[in-house]
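Notes continue from the previous slide.

Worked example: a multi-chain complex. Inputs as given:
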Amino acid sequence: MPGVFGLLLCVAVAALAACKPDGPTDPAPPAAETFSVTLQWNAPTQDALGEPLDDLAGYRIHYRSSSPANGPGATIVEVADVTQATVDGVPAGQWHFSVTAHDASGNESTPSNEVQVEVGS
Amino acid sequence: MTAPRRAAVAVGGFLLVAVGPVAAQSPPNAPVNLEADVTSERVRLTWDEDDSGPSAESFRVYRDDELIGTPTDEDHVDFDVVEGAQYTYEVSAVRFLVIEGERSDPLTVVIPGGDPPGRPDNLMAESVSSSQIDLRWDAVRGDDDDEPAVAGYYIYRDGGSVPHDSTGGAQYSDTGLTAFTEYTYRVSAVSTGGVEGELSNAASARTADGSPPGAPQGVTAEATGARVVELAWDAAEDPESGISRYLVYRDEDAAPIDSTTATGYTDGTAEPETSYSYRVSARNGVGLEGPTSAAAEVTTPAATDPSPPSTPAGFSAEAVSPDRVELTWSAAEDPESGVSEYRVYRDDSLLGTSPGVGYVDLTVEPSTTYEYEVAAVNGDGLEGSRASAPPVTTPGLGEGPADTVPPAPPSGLRVVSD
């Protein structure tokens, strides 16, 4: 009986979205498999001139398929004033990571040491 | 219905009896004692015939120069009235139907009621003296067909529900006020029909402090060194706006040598073996200066140490923030009488004194350049030569000293998992 009513309603008010018969939803596109990389580092305690650093604001993680990690086309992830971060959405492959610090005035440090990671192997 | 019938009878009688030359008859006198009883629906007019002249058979009632009635009795009621309107009535007496006397004195009445007038805008209050505030506002025009005529304005003061006063024009002077007191006003327009409109904006003003403070009492002067005179006095009073500063005068100079908020002053510019006369005046919160005090006389002693102290070395000035300059120097020397204090100058005028080797200036403005000097004063009050520092500029508000140095790089980057 509901089916008959539904059909009648469809005839009466054609073009109502509610009249669209139930069916399977569109399948999601196949997602490329990605991975997470968790990094740790030591916070700087001085500025570039050796004075005490009292306005550290945060970090940027750079990664790229070749060295240097912060070279052209690098992916940049902004992180807060922490010393460990997990970078999500990293595709499988070889990646070079480095991290820079910046202060409240926007001055950015040179990169840290670089680490190389084989992801998804 | 009675009046027209009586008039008709009078006309008939006249035609039968009086065939003589009516133009030769003298006219009756103007009616007197014209009065009106006014409501919002009608105007009842009454008057008296002037019995000293020829008697009248009827009267003519005029409203705004237009004939509106010819009663035979001494009264007439005008029902054709509009609320808020203003009418001027006159009455004349008539003999023999056509011989009309002079009109009475005019009587103007206003019909009560009608629409309220508009709101007065832009009320402004201005203090003109210690006892008077003048008010001005935009007149309510009241000359449109939609708006009633404005008869005047009510003045309300300090939120009272009863008008403080009324006035005809769009301005008012409130007099007899208390000095240095704030008053708040609103005004409203009143129609000729007696209907009051909306209150204006509020406007406030404070009356001036008209009385200067009295002269400081108990001024004393003491020479504490060959070149130093210390003054002290009792606090003066100004009940209205208070005391803001004291001005110190020396000898017969018209201009004060300095001013201070304290009830004392040290004059470090005196010369040895010299007589001085000091007077002090008080200035109140609105800048009115009172009379100067009685003079305090003092004579400085002879100098005991004629050689000045050395110049402070290593003088530096640093603007550490927009409102703070820090001064440092090395101690000066005076082998004879020692160093008693240091005098700090800013842009060539005395800023203050310091017993030791340092001074913080908290009276600076942001983004401003200053030149500082410092000199030592020996135990006999003699000042040595000044040391100067390069000009110093305070940072602007919101800026510290500019930070252009980046942090050192993070170190020890390592992968923890995955």
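Summary box: The interface with chain B takes residues 35-49, 51, 53, 55-56, 59, 83-84, 97-105, 107-115, 117, 119 of chain A (CB under 8 Å). Chain A is about 10% helix and 40% strand.
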